[in-house]
Amino acid sequence: MTENKTYIYERNPDTGEVFRREKGNYDKRELINKTENMNMISLYDYLGRAAGPDLGKQVAIAASKAGIKSEIREVSNVKYSGPIMLYPRQFLDNFFGGGLNESTSGKQLLNG
Predict the structure, then answer these.
(1) 85 close to 72: Cβ distance less than 8 angstroms
(2) pLDDT greater than 70 at residue 37
(3) Rounded Cα–Cα distance for residues 73 and 65 (Å)
(4) β-strand 18-22 against 7-11: which pairing, if any?
(5) How far is residue 50's CA from residue 70's CA, in Å, rounded to a whole number?
(6) What is the pTM (predicted TM-score) of this model?
């Protein structure tokens, strides 16, 4: 049986390095190699639908507070043309699973 773990992602503001640790564990953290482990994905690709501006803003704020770097991709299709934000898949997994709320009241940030 695979155990589901919740991780907290932290960025060192001096070096830009991103670390992850298990929620509640302050003693052990792991350096994340952004090119190998941080699969960048849009909210549309993650959710399978358009996220909309309100949800997009909530995710952007949470990523900023967590020190998660995002990327921008330009897209053009029938329904939308312009920039979209890309986030690490692991960050989105935690965001929609409630893993980024350790210092809050214990409620999830958002149910996806």
Answers:
(1) yes
(2) no
(3) 21
(4) antiparallel
(5) 18
(6) 0.56
